[in-house]
Amino acid sequence: MNHAVVLRETGGPSVLRYEQTQTPSAGPGEAVVRHEAVGINFVDTMVRTGRYRVALPAVPGFEAAGVVTEIDAAQSRLKIGDRVGYFFAEGAYADLNVVKASSLVALPDHISAQLAAAFLAKGLTAWMGLRVLHEIKASEVILVQGASGNVGSILTRWARALGATVIGVAGSAQKLPLVAAGSTLALTAGDPELLAKVRALAPKGVDAVYDFVGDATFASSVAAVRDGGKILALGAASGPATPGKTELTRRAIEMRGGSTPQIVNAGNQLAAAAELFGLIEAGVFADLVITQRRLDEAADVHRLMDARRLPGLTVLLP
């Protein structure tokens, strides 16, 4: 028997319905995973509202962790009973899901299913920013716009662990303590002295800006970065930025962005996950709290997400 949260039409959280569904089976190159925890990500709300288009009916969710219960015999890397996680395969809001075996990451003993479901997608997005879009150096100063978000919280702590000086920007004063815990200097987005405080720490400007906010913070990102620096667009909570190419070209500022599923793939995801898991074991993210909710409470979780009141890292338990 399988249960899943089914989306038959787009709309508000009430369109998410917890139902009994057909038990999946593995085809060529596939595995069935019995979930122990399901990750929650902002893209899930985009699927629900129709901004990220999928064929309906659909089961939302892209991230989960659990145990392999069935697998194509030709797949030699994993076997039935292995503990695994994945970070971008459709249909995660369910007891069971069938996914490509190549997308699965084996979990070490010290990584629980809850940790994997909470950290894989967000942590590998941070890895993409710090290792692929811009190879961060210990001597660098970076600015993180949206540092109080889930990915921003992980990225700031990871960057500090790599030796960088981190200026984290929170959206409000209420979020400042969370940002301060992971940053060298914590500021609020509405601080009229923000740029002056950034320049006091980095007189020529920061080496790179990691921007999870988009349009609302883009002007301050451009003002804060040094000539020849980089702006890494990893999110657009306020809408996509519309850069003026003239100033960027004149100051030799490079803008880069990318999709995590395209950049973190079967060729590098195991190494990326191993680095992430090592930092988790080392306690780099120990202050980030994981909240657990039941799978059948998915609609309530989405209401909290829409109201921006979902606490920290949240997972659904089947």
**Shape assignment:** globular
Helix content: 25-40%
Largest sheet geometry: 7 strands, mixed
CATH-level-2 architecture of the largest domain: Alpha-Beta Complex
- The unreliable regions are none
What is the top-level CATH class of the largest domain?
A: Alpha Beta
Provide the gyration radius in Å: 20 Å
Description:
This protein is of the alpha/beta class and 318 residues long. It folds into two domains: 2-107 and 288-317, Quinone Oxidoreductase, Chain A, domain 1 (Alpha-Beta Complex), CATH 3.90.180; 126-261, Rossmann fold, CATH 3.40.50. It has ten helices and 15 strands. The strands form three sheets. Strands 3, 4, 5, 6, 7, 14 and 15 form a seven-stranded mixed sheet that branches. Strands 10-9-8-11-12-13 form a six-stranded parallel sheet, sandwiched between helices. Helix 3 links the parallel strand 8 (141-145) and strand 9 (165-170). It is globular and about 60 Å long. The two termini are 12 Å apart. The model has no long low-confidence stretch (mean pLDDT 95).
